[in-house]
């Protein structure tokens, strides 16, 4: 990040630091949950170094909380368990309505849902998938499942759905023939190994939306929110910080708010396609 770009975050960092240093009542350890688009081993290896850097820069420890499936992540989020979370766009809507969570940072690149088939399959468009089985990571994975299923229904495509827990499972189920097609998003597809990606073909895409945000529970003090937000925004200033952000698919973080980026998702009319797993 050019120096003149970094300078605009200095007042926010200074203010957050002053408020934190003057407020001994604030806790210095908070939890952060991450939506499990990947397995927990991969998520830990990607996120823990970033959280260590944020702790070094702010004095605030964000303890990583990982779940084995997206539905388990959702249950905790809707109960208000994590202080912070990295969640999909519609999770931001659900969490705002359930607990008052607010988005603070997201990546500048739009999120796009994609529907994939094997490269050598006969399927050319979504109408070819009528009556077929389609795999999705989880019911409420926004671009990969929730929005995608709503658009398929809008196009009067009838299909069997199978939920496979992670994006990686979707890719591999397409390749081994367990499902005819599968839903994912541009970020996870681009992040997949070339030997997997090169065997897949995109036949449909959703309109783009604001990407996964970092959201925060309203119980977290404003000074802590400001410090964490400023830390994310300042990280691209050096190569090491940028590398950490790239690992978690947040290479170009920018400030966000609910009204400008996520309120519009309430108007898509996709809430009837949400499914919440019972405990």
Defining key terms:
279 residues; alpha/beta; D-Maltodextrin-Binding Protein, domain 2; 2 domains; six-stranded mixed β-sheet; five-stranded mixed β-sheet; 41% helix; 19% strand; Phosphate/phosphite/phosphonate ABC transporter substrate-binding protein; signal
Quick rundown:
By secondary structure, the protein is α/β, with parallel strands linked by helices. Helices cover about 40% and strands about 20% of the residues. A six-stranded mixed beta sheet has the order 2-1-3-10-4-11.
Task: Describe the fold and architecture.
The protein has twelve helices and eleven strands. By secondary structure, it is α/β, with parallel strands linked by helices. The model has no long low-confidence stretch (mean pLDDT 92). 41% of the residues lie in helices and 19% in strands.
């Amino acid at each position: 990040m050019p120096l003149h770009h970094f300078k605009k975050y200095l007042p926010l960092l200074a203010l957050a630091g002053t408020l934190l240093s003057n407020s001994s009542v604030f806790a210095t350890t908070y939890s952060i949950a991450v939506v499990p688009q990947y397995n927990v081993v991969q998520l830990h290896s990607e996120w823990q170094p970033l959280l260590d850097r944020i702790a070094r820069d702010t004095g605030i420890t964000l303890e990583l909380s990982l779940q084995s499936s997206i539905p388990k992540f959702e249950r905790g989020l809707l109960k208000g368990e994590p202080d912070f979370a990295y969640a999909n766009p519609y999770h931001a809507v659900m969490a705002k309505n359930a607990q008052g969570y607010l988005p603070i940072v997201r990546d500048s690149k739009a999120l796009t849902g994609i529907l994939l088939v094997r490269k050598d399959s006969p399927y050319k468009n979504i109408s070819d998938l009528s009556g077929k089985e389609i795999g999705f990571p989880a019911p409420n994975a926004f671009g990969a499942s929730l929005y995608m299923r709503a658009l398929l229904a809008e196009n009067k495509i009838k299909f069997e759905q199978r939920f496979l827990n992670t994006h990686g499972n979707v890719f591999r189920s397409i390749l081994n023939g367990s499902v005819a097609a599968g839903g994912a998003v541009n970020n996870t597809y681009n992040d997949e190994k070339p030997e997997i990606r090169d065997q897949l073909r995109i036949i449909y895409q959703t309109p783009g939306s604001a990407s996964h945000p970092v959201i925060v529970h309203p119980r977290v003090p404003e000074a802590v929110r400001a410090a964490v937000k400023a830390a994310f925004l300042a990280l691209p200033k050096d190569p090491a910080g940028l590398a950490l952000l790239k690992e978690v698919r947040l290479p170009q973080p920018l400030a966000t708010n609910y009204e400008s980026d996520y309120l519009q998702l309430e108007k898509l009319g996709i809430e009837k396609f949400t499914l919440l797993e019972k405990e």
